[in-house]
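Researcher: Here's the sequence for the chain we discussed earlier.
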Amino acid sequence: MNWGHKLTVVIGIFILAMLSMVYLAFQQTNDMVDTNYYDKELKYQLKIDAAQNLNAASTEVLVTQFEKNVKILLPKNLIKNFANGKLEFLKSDDKRRDLNLSFQPDTAGQFIIDGKRFVRGLYKVRLQWESEDKSYYREQDLMLE
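Model: Thanks. This is the structure I predict for it:
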């Protein structure tokens, strides 16, 4: 094989590689984590205050993987008169896997979610609730195996 044939093969491989990269690029989703983020940005100061309330009371990790399930454990001193518990599990690479639900912990401050509702991967967890006329908020990343 002479150099002209080798050059043609190299150019052919390069073109195939570029076409495969274009194909893979079109398969990617570019979903935003939040819809209506402009509206949510206007209310952000309330979340900052709620996060400061929680950080002043506790710096523990609130959401963990427990066996095959997801466990929410709230500090016992923050569950008196518990109200409006909301959980958001946001999967940044697949919006269809997002999970939004309300929750009510037991007397020990625990709430367990069945792990079958999730797929393996990284989630952004947003947790908020009210207790004794104060709002609490925490946002954390959770890697589920």
